[in-house]
Amino acid sequence: MYLKDIKHKIDIIEDMRELKELKTYIRNRIKSIQNGVKYELKIGDKVEIRDRKPRYGIIKKINRTRIVVSIDEDTTWRVPCSMIIKKENK
Question: How far is residue 65 from each of residues 5, 62, 85, measured CA to CA in Å?
């Protein structure tokens, strides 16, 4: 199913209770995907930080909600899991 079809089906819903239930489901699904990304990462992985200007770094520490990424020798960032894409280690 395409995103366009999903949006159309959501527009058809008139019941506020159903929309709130859908909102809760989507929020939980987003958290589930973000946690999945977190558990695939490990210290030393090369990652891309999705931002206005993509940056690349190496994971130094994995915290509960954020990941510490070393951008260069002097710079480390605490980045949310949702902004990180794992790059293939070569």
Answer: 33, 8, 15
Protein fold of 3-86? SH3 type barrels. (2.30.30)
| Chain centroid offset of residue 11 CA | 26
pLDDT in tens, 30-84: 888 777 777 888 999 999 998 888 899 999 999 988 999 999 888 999 999 888 8
Q: Could you give the count of Cα atoms lying within 13 Å of 31 in the half-sphere of its Cβ?
A: 8
Which candidate, 80, 87, 50, places its Cα nearest to that of 64? 80
β-pair partners for 85: 48
- Report pTM: 0.62
The answer to whether the CB of 53 falls within 8 A of the CB of 47 is no
